[in-house]
Amino acid sequence: MPTSFYICSYSKKRIMTKNFVQELQWRGMVHDVMPGAEEHLMEQMRGAYVGIDPTADSLHIGHLVSVMMLRHFQLAGHKPYALVGGATGMIGDPSGKSAERNLLDEETLRHNQEAIKAQLGRFLDFESGEDNAAVLVNNYDWMKNFSFLEFIRDVGKHITVNYMMAKDSVKKRLSSDAKEGMSFTEFTYQLVQGYDFLYLYQNHDCSLQMGGSDQWGNITTGTELIRRIGGGKGFALTCPLITKADGTKFGKTEGGNVWLDAERTSPYKFYQYWLNTSDEDAEKYIKIFTFLSQTEIDALVSEHKEAPHQRALQRRLAEEVTIMVHSQEDLDNAIKASDILFGKSTSDDLKQLNEKTFLDVFEGVPQAIVGKDELEPGLDMIGALAAKTGFLGSNGEARRELKQNSISVNKEKVKEDYLITASDLINDKFVLLQRGKKNYFVLVVE
């Protein structure tokens, strides 16, 4: 089970005993780090932030690396800041994008901010009152009263166009291969993000910005502003962009993003995503997405290599992340739901599934609609298997399978004389038919 979550209480002037940078390095979470950052963080409690895109009212697992960095930072005794990009979300970051995205209105961004803070509360301590309690900020709060003339006078004059054009994110969008050019709005993004760093440095003593490796250019614009405007020293640390061994995009399924919100991605599907990772990916991900120690992970890797078919790495990874994002109860239910497909379950287990999980478990399984009125006298098995649904090819085949005792209703074996009634309904809507061990069919009762 996951390691306990604790918050270190440190005086700001106390020498730090836990090396944050080294912790990230052995976990494979450092791509670039500005010289001097490690020593800077060992001197005393520092502030660091990551920017979070507020374009949805839930985080997805693509955000998890940044969130894990913040949590490691807090566990090392430092003060984490989560910056929700209310202002930058109205502009759009060109980094890694091939086209300009749709912009959001203020009301939507505020709603998304509150939802994101609630999710972050599972990872970070905002409420303890300790010196290193986390803080959530929104750059719209300090950018909304900035006039265009003030911004270009007070910020823009310190960064040359040559400097901005040299950034990879700009070069890619202006290259001959780009499908679209770059709007002035997007071009100024790095200045706005750079000013965020300057603002947090001046007002919150925040001296480190962290993010994905594609953010290095934007982050260093901030360190440059800190140097040119205030004569101070800011630091940058980036993590690698997470990839999958098979070349497909991390955090995506055929259905889209894997969300942290249980309403968007059920705990069952969330658990399955991690359980189905490859051996190579699981060995990498368990360092990044859990708080297991190096000793624990080394032991797990050895155990897995001795018996890869038991998938010890994948199972522990899926357990740890599901509990961290959801709960122990959600993990237990996800495991029960997973067992349903492999014959290790009962009718009672099936009826405990909520509608979303039921549909997730039996995604892609053939369905047929029957009227609820047909269940009042009882739907006979021949009709349920063949005549009214087409699950089996003919009435004769249905009779043969029933005589061979290979048909189940909601995981219980039935004979030809069995009648399906309202008492069989799962979530007042579904009946699960099964032939043999793996051949399923769902009756949707309307």
What spatial form do the alpha-carbon principal axes imply? Answer: elongated
Uncertain runs with pLDDT below 50, 5 residues or more? 1-11
Mean pLDDT over the full residue set: 89
Helix run count: 20
Class from helix and strand fractions: alpha/beta
Give the number of domains. Answer: 3
In CATH, what is the class of the largest domain?
Alpha Beta
First and last CA, distance: 42 Å
Please list the strands of the largest sheet in the order they lie side by side: 1-6-5-2-3-4
Helix content: 40-55%
Task: Please name the fourth-level CATH homologous superfamily of the largest domain.
Answer: HUPs
Describe the overall structure.
By secondary structure, this protein is of the alpha/beta class. It has three domains: 20-239, Rossmann fold (3-Layer(aba) Sandwich); 252-343, Orthogonal Bundle (Tyrosyl-Transfer RNA Synthetase); 358-445, RNA-binding S4 domain (Structural Genomics Hypothetical 15.5 Kd Protein In mrcA-pckA Intergenic Region, Chain A, Roll). 42% of the residues lie in helices and 13% in strands. The chain contains 20 helices and 15 strands. A six-stranded mixed β-sheet has the order 1-6-5-2-3-4, with helices on both faces. A five-stranded mixed β-sheet has the order 9-15-14-11-12, with no helix packed on it. The longest helix has 16 residues, at 189-204. It is elongated, with a radius of gyration of 27 Å.
Indicate the topology.
Blueprint: H1 20-26, E1 32-33, H2 37-43, E2 47-52, H3 64-75, E3 79-84, H4 106-120, E4 135-138, H5 140-143, H6 148-154, H7 161-165, H8 168-174, H9 184-187, H10 189-204, E5 206-212, H11 216-230, E6 235-239, E7 252-253, E8 256-257, H12 267-275, H13 279-288, H14 294-306, H15 312-325, H16 328-340, H17 347-351, H18 355-361, E9 367-370, E10 379-380, H19 381-387, H20 395-403, E11 407-409, E12 412-413, E13 419-420, E14 430-435, E15 439-445
Parallel strand pairs: 2-3, 2-5, 3-4, 5-6, 9-15
Antiparallel strand pairs: 1-6, 7-8, 10-13, 11-12, 11-14, 14-15
